[in-house]
Design goal:
The protein is mostly helical. The protein has one domain. Helices cover 67% and strands 0% of the residues. The chain is built from 7 helices and no strands.
């Protein structure tokens, strides 16, 4: 999921923002997909939090907030229904998780352009996602 996040930042955010990735490249390169589900959920939670209470001049803004809430509920329901110990992650859930990551960057872009990049702390989210990487031996 971190690679999806990085790709989206590079594609969607202005070059001045995407350049911030360089200081994290070493840590990004060391990540695995071990906690991708947790990372994706964190992206969705982050986007909802950043979107909450903002009145931004963007016609899709409310739809994005509602979609994140729907995906959050859908993920929790599907997680309890299908995922059991040792079974793995069904493909539809991975697709939903990728959407959450992509939309977190989309929310960052909307907020950054409308309210200023200090109001869209996507780099802090990236650090959180990196820090979810398990240490060796765990």
């Amino acid at each position: 999921m971190i690679q999806v996040f990085v790709r989206e930042v590079e594609e969607e955010l202005p070059a001045t923002q995407a350049e911030k990735l360089n200081s994290h490249r070493s840590a990004i390169d060391k990540t695995t997909n071990h906690h991708d589900g947790h990372r994706a959920r964190r992206c969705a939670e982050w986007a909802i939090h950043v979107a909450a209470g903002r009145e931004l001049p963007h016609p899709r803004w409310q739809a994005i907030k509602e979609a994140h809430a729907i995906w959050r509920d859908m993920f929790r329901a599907a997680e309890y229904a299908v995922i059991t110990e040792g079974v793995g992650r069904p493909e539809p859930l991975k697709d939903i998780e990728i959407e959450w990551v992509e939309d977190a960057v989309g929310v960052a872009k909307i907020v950054g352009e409308a309210a200023g990049w200090d109001q869209a702390p996507w780099e802090h989210l990236l650090v959180e996602l990196i820090e979810m990487e398990p240490t060796v031996g765990t």
